[in-house]
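Structure (tokenized):
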């Protein structure tokens, strides 16, 4: 569970990073390191500030850009460390002839160019293009779990880069071993004490010891919901009380861990929302579009009685269905009239979006919705040309919600429709562009849809 969590953080972090930016930093790594060594009394970000203020006229533009990229990604990685309570550095490596070469780190020291041997997991991450995590391992600095995630590259597959996140678990292991040692010691003492008692008392104690043994097995199998039911005032009774307190304590810790996982997923979602904000800076329409699509889609989900888990995945899919547009030039998104080649470029956003979230464990059920939300029910959509119920259900829901909001919103290349016109268009395309069952539900609850439309001022309604 812990290794999957760290692997998910690494995969999400890697999705924020552009491979071309890292290649730029790598190109100027010697010069950046030389700049740092000549100004060793200041932090990395201050170097960039001083360069901007006093040396800009003597630096090449590309070197300026490389320094800016360093500062930007160092800030991003530092924020991710804080959000996920990671104590150790987050590192970015490039694959070289001599193994892994360090390009960027969250530390306030410049270690670019340092070479490291490939771990099996890092090598697997690079060549499978999927995030990987280690088991528990020990080195001279302690006990660890590490995760590696490849940085996606749109333009070239030969430049391999990855993100490394390591989590130190010494204290956690030490505490578990200490508590286990105390339990074993207390059990042993209790058992020796009972050996000196009378036969009748021993019989009673044996029964209690068997209960304790059963409780210990429950603990060993990580079942902490069965109370230790021993009522006596002797040593075994006190030991049972200790077991019960320990059971309750462990149960509370498990609840805290579950809460931490929920918070972690929330942090992932916040990170993803932050990524969608990057699209908004290039296309301001996107943010409110995503919010409206989410509301329409969740209404449909409630009406067709999706499970809680499916509704959560649908929510994520609504936020992420246009994430691939981050690779589309801002000027293209704002064009009034699209050329055939422009439309082909825009069509790639669904595949690119699915690629961004590939390998993120808790978004596994969302990937297909992102990939196939532009499919048509008659099989004439893209990218896979899927047809009918061969299209994933979440993708069919997002398709209707996305299309309705697009129709009722003014864009550079088209004017918005009225509410009635858009509803007629949904009805007209049921069974061709859209799933007819989804359309039937959507049209049946038009009053609820109209309330959302009025609230967001996106269409003309009476």
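Design, position by position:
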């Amino acid at each position: 569970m812990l290794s999957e969590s760290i692997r998910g953080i690494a995969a999400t972090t890697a999705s924020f990073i552009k491979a071309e930016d890292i290649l730029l930093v790598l190109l100027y790594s010697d010069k950046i390191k030389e700049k740092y060594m000549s100004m060793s009394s200041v932090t990395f970000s201050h170097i960039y500030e001083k360069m901007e203020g006093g040396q800009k006229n003597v630096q090449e533009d590309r070197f300026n850009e490389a320094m800016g990229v360093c500062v930007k990604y160092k800030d991003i990685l530092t924020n991710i460390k804080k959000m996920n309570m990671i104590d150790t550095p987050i590192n970015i490596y490039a694959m070289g002839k001599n193994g892994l070469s360090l390009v960027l780190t969250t530390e306030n020291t410049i270690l670019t160019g340092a070479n490291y041997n490939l771990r099996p997991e890092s090598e697997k991450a690079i060549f499978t293009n999927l995030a990987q995590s280690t088991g528990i391992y020990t080195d001279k600095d302690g006990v660890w779990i590490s995760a590696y995630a490849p940085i996606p590259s749109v333009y070239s597959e030969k430049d391999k880069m990855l993100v490394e996140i390591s989590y130190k678990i010494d204290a956690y292991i030490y505490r578990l071993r200490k508590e286990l040692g105390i339990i074993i010691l207390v059990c042993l003492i209790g058992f020796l004490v009972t050996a000196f008692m009378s036969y009748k008392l021993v019989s009673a104690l044996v029964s209690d010891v068997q209960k304790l043994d059963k409780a210990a097995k429950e603990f060993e199998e990580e079942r902490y919901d069965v109370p230790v039911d021993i009522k006596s005032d002797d040593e075994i009774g006190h030991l049972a009380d200790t077991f019960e307190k320990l059971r309750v304590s462990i149960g509370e810790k498990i609840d805290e861990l579950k809460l931490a996982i929920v918070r972690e997923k929330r942090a992932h979602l916040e990170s993803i929302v932050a990524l969608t904000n990057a699209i908004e800076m290039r296309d301001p329409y996107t943010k409110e579009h995503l919010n409206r699509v989410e509301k329409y889609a969740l209404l449909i989900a409630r009406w067709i009685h999706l499970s809680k888990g499916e509704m959560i995945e649908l929510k994520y899919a609504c936020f992420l269905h246009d994430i691939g547009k981050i690779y589309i030039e801002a000027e293209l998104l704002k064009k009034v009239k699209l050329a055939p080649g422009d439309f082909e470029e825009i069509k790639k956003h669904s595949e690119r979006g699915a690629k961004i979230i590939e390998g993120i464990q808790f978004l596994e059920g969302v990937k297909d919705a992102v990939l196939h939300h532009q499919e048509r029910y008659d099989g004439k959509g893209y990218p896979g040309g899927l047809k009918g119920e061969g299209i994933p259900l979440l993708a069919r829901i997002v398709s209707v919600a996305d299309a309705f909001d697009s129709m009722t919103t003014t864009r550079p290349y088209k004017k918005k429709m009225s509410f009635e016109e858009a509803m007629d268009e949904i009805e007209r395309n049921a069974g061709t562009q859209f799933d007819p069952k989804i359309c039937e539900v959507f049209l049946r609850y038009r009053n609820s849809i109209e309330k959302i439309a009025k609230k967001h001022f996106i269409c003309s309604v009476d």
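Reviewer-requested clarification: Residues 369 and 395 are 4 Å apart (CA to CA). The longest strand covers residues 142-150.
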